[in-house]
């Protein structure tokens, strides 16, 4: 290789997090060079102030692929740091996972959410513009859709947006709109917004997975912590919804399938001329809370105790998508089942009963 030429690289913000780390594995396995920027605000760090997720990723891929991974601790809105990164690496595209994502917290601390998610993203876009890097894949969310009647399901990309139920959801919609406007102002820009439904599970190796701080807000990490003995029982939020068994129905999607959605999008972005395009990343199938509990119990062999509670404010009865656009245009569809999601989550939880930074780590790296 000509030593003066910089190898092409993908910049991944939030790459030490749950979905980012799984995507970095897929990118490295496609022999991409990957530069991760993460300030570790929601990712565990070890005694050396480095994220265990990064060393675990390196242990999953081959040693030559591991050499293509570069980690920088910092904020994705830090303009002077970004200038250095864009000068040092030949960045071709940015996959922007970084951001805060807790619905309840965003209601308590809206300004923190608008600053970190929206304002810092403006800095990132500015730096990309200045360094002529105009390809982005953005982590959007199913929460950008407006809640409508059940007849409107499944959700397609043209379903009504807005009426966001929390500041977190608003930040996702604002960023989508900002990115759309940017592509309209400059046809050098190409952006894909991937609207994830309910990403769950873990890498099959059991080395990387979701590591929520404190009490999990979401269903699957909570179930896994009940199974491993960290929590006594699962609170089931409502059993009087108009669903198969009265509990909420969601479109769960394996995190490795979500990660593969990004490599598919990266290839499609290459072929795209310009503009903005949104895609649903979901399975197109709904599963209820009690069905998930049942499947997790079967897979783990552990009984999950449940208690029925009041509905959680802001929850909808049923939410699932039509993923046809992603299939038709990205050649992507889910490959893994809800059993796979539960089995892989259980392997990760057993290996890491207290998360990444734990004296009790049982896995082999
Ligand atoms: N997990 C889900 O269920 C879900 C669903 C829909 C959308 N999303 C979106 O997907 C993205 C990734 O989600 P995740 O579940 O992997 O979350 P995560 O919290 O595990 O990962 C996000 C990462 O971003 C980092 N980060 C936050 N602010 C930063 C900043 N200013 N600079 C640098 N790094 C920063 C955090 O430290 C973390 O490692 C998020 O944008 C989230 O909103 C997630
Ligand atoms: C209100 C809320 O937080 N929404 C977020 C949550 O969507 P969801 O509410 O779709 O995901 P979730 O995992 O929090 O809940 C899924 C289903 O499980 C139910 N449930 C959940 C936890 C629990 O302890 N007991 C229980 O019964 C819940 O009522 C719902 O019917 O996660 C998504 C990502 O996956 C998005 O980030 C959403 O913005």
From TrEMBL:
<comment type="subunit">
    <text>Homodimer.</text>
</comment>
<comment type="pathway">
    <text>Carbohydrate metabolism; galactose metabolism.</text>
</comment>
<dbReference type="GO" id="GO:0003974">
    <property type="term" value="F:UDP-N-acetylglucosamine 4-epimerase activity"/>
</dbReference>
<dbReference type="GO" id="GO:0005829">
    <property type="term" value="C:cytosol"/>
</dbReference>
<comment type="similarity">
    <text>Belongs to the NAD(P)-dependent epimerase/dehydratase family.</text>
</comment>
<dbReference type="InterPro" id="IPR016040">
    <property type="entry name" value="NAD(P)-bd_dom"/>
</dbReference>
<protein>
    <recommendedName>
        <fullName>UDP-glucose 4-epimerase</fullName>
        <ecNumber>5.1.3.2</ecNumber>
    </recommendedName>
</protein>
<dbReference type="InterPro" id="IPR036291">
    <property type="entry name" value="NAD(P)-bd_dom_sf"/>
</dbReference>
<feature type="domain" description="NAD(P)-binding">
    <location>
        <begin position="11"/>
        <end position="344"/>
    </location>
</feature>
<keyword id="KW-0119">Carbohydrate metabolism</keyword>
<dbReference type="Pfam" id="PF16363">
    <property type="entry name" value="GDP_Man_Dehyd"/>
</dbReference>
<keyword id="KW-0413">Isomerase</keyword>
<dbReference type="GO" id="GO:0033499">
    <property type="term" value="P:galactose catabolic process via UDP-galactose, Leloir pathway"/>
</dbReference>
<dbReference type="InterPro" id="IPR005886">
    <property type="entry name" value="UDP_G4E"/>
</dbReference>
<keyword id="KW-0299">Galactose metabolism</keyword>
<keyword id="KW-0520">NAD</keyword>
<comment type="function">
    <text>Catalyzes two distinct but analogous reactions: the reversible epimerization of UDP-glucose to UDP-galactose and the reversible epimerization of UDP-N-acetylglucosamine to UDP-N-acetylgalactosamine. The reaction with UDP-Gal plays a critical role in the Leloir pathway of galactose catabolism in which galactose is converted to the glycolytic intermediate glucose 6-phosphate. It contributes to the catabolism of dietary galactose and enables the endogenous biosynthesis of both UDP-Gal and UDP-GalNAc when exogenous sources are limited.</text>
</comment>
<dbReference type="GO" id="GO:0003978">
    <property type="term" value="F:UDP-glucose 4-epimerase activity"/>
</dbReference>
């Amino acid at each position: 290789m000509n030593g003066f030429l910089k190898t092409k690289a993908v910049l991944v913000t939030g790459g030490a997090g749950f979905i980012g780390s799984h995507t970095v594995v897929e990118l490295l396995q496609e022999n991409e060079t990957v530069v991760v920027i993460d300030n570790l605000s929601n990712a565990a760090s070890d005694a050396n102030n480095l994220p265990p997720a990064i060393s675990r990723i390196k242990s999953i891929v081959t040693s030559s692929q591991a050499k293509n991974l570069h980690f920088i601790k910092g904020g994705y809105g830090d303009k002077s740091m970004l200038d250095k990164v864009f000068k040092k690496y030949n960045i071709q595209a940015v996959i922007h996972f970084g951001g805060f994502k807790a619905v309840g917290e965003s209601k308590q601390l809206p300004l923190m959410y608008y600053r970190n998610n929206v304002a810092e993203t403006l800095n990132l876009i500015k730096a990309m513009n200045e360094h002529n890097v105009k390809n982005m894949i953005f982590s959007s969310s199913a929460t950008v859709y407006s809640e409508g009647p059940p007849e409107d399901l499944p959700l397609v990309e043209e379903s009504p947006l807005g009426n966001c139920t929390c500041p977190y959801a608003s930040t996702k919609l604002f960023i989508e709109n900002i990115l759309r406007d940017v592509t309209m102002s400059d046809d050098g820009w190409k952006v894909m917004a991937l609207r994830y439904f309910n990403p769950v599970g873990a890498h099959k190796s059991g080395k990387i997975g979701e590591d929520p701080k404190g009490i999990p807000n979401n269903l699957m990490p909570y179930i896994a912590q009940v199974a491993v003995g960290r929590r006594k029982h699962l609170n089931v939020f409502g059993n009087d919804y108009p669903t198969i068994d009265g509990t909420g129905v969601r479109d769960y999607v394996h995190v490795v399938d979500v990660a593969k959605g990004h490599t598919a999008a990266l290839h499609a972005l290459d072929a795209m001329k310009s503009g903005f395009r949104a895609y649903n990343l979901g399975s197109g199938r709904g599963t209820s809370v009690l069905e998930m509990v049942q499947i997790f119990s079967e897979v783990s062999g552990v009984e999950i105790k449940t208690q029925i509670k009041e509905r959680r404010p802001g929850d909808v009865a049923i939410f699932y998508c039509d993923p046809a656009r992603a299939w038709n245009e990205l050649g992507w569809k889910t490959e893994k089942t809800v059993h796979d999601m539960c089995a892989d989550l259980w392997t990760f939880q057993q290996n890491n009963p207290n998360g990444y930074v734990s004296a009790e780590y049982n896995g082999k790296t």
